[in-house]
# Entry
Amino acid sequence: MDYLMEKVSVTFLGSGDAFGSGGRYQTCILVEGPKINCLIDCGASSLIAMKKYGVSPAAINTILVTHLHGDHFAGIPFFILDAQFSRRTAPLTIAGPPGTEDRLRSTMEVLFSKSSETGQKYPMNFVELKPSMRSRVGSLRVISENAVHPSGSPSYALRVECAGRIIAYSGDTEWTDDLLKIADGADIFICESFSLDKQIRYHIDYKSLIKKRPALSCKRMILTHLGEEILRHLSDIQIECAEDGMKIDL
# Structure
């Protein structure tokens, strides 16, 4: 079958920052394609967002994690708890930086004591993503590049190939020229823009990003992880911005 003829969609279940600015959910991006229902990041509020927008957790077979901050991965313990109570049987793959499995199990213990010791009735597989390497995660091909965003483990920007489409995502990061590689020729480049013009360490501001835009060869660019400052100036933004619940067909 020609993958290029098959539908791939991207839905922003959460497009906000760590602080719920603008009432938005934390980072959670749904990718749907042939044989894949994948979350890219799963912030603490993600299970709520999924149920609000009618996305069945049971349908998700893969979770990709860019870095180990709570607004990007702390929804997974709730996801796993929901899977236990809903009697999930379908396999789940979680792919992220080194230390993802240990950090997840530690977080589960903090949130729900003894939960990490509960045996699951479905296979749960962990894949370690390494920088500047291509990984096979189910039917996805994933390239991870180092981001500039300390999180106690490597933080990544991701380039995800799904059924012939390329979805690029900055994760959280200061500007790094590795983003040019991640975004090169991508059907969509999802890029964080936490602030308007205030330069905040380990994040990208819009004014700096707009200067880099001509060098980015992606077909379409969408801003996410929007903080209070940039949300107050959305009418002035010249790059498309994500909203919770926004769906895009590629």
Observations:
- The domain at 3-249 is CATH 3.60.15.10 (Metallo-beta-lactamase; Chain A).
- The chain has a mean pLDDT of 95.
- The longest strand covers residues 36-42.
